[in-house]
Design goal:
73% of the residues lie in helices and 0% in strands. The protein is mostly helical and 104 residues long. Helix 1 (8-41) runs antiparallel to helix 2, helix 1 (8-41) packs parallel to helix 3 (77-97) and helix 2 packs across helix 3 (77-97). 20% of the residues are buried.
Length: 104
């Protein structure tokens, strides 16, 4: 009989690598929105462009996550925190685009 303990370290390593990759994708999505946000604060882009950048960054992350076989479920504590930031980006951006935001 083969023990499952032999595969345990490999499973943990694969899980840690997947979590790191997920976090990298999440950070990239936040970075996209922040980059446009700096131009928005400087008056170089309008609010619609900012809102589209926010929602687009989240949509890009979701597509990448699905392509990697994930379902968006956070795989680490850091991913949970970044997931909250992505949710806020999506909520705020889509709310603005739907005319339900006090920032307009």
């Amino acid at each position: 009989m083969i023990s499952s303990r032999a595969t345990e370290p490999q499973s943990k390593a694969a899980g840690a690598a997947a979590a790191a990759t997920q976090v990298d994708r999440m950070r990239a999505a936040v970075r996209k929105a922040v980059t446009v946000g700096l131009d928005f604060q400087r008056g170089k882009v309008d609010a619609d462009t900012m809102a589209h950048a926010m929602t687009g960054a989240v949509q890009d992350f979701v597509a990448q996550e699905k392509a990697a076989g994930g379902d968006g479920t956070p795989r680490s504590a850091e991913a949970r925190h970044l997931g909250e930031a992505l949710m806020e980006l999506n909520t705020c951006g889509s709310g603005f685009l739907a005319g339900r935001c006090g920032a307009d």
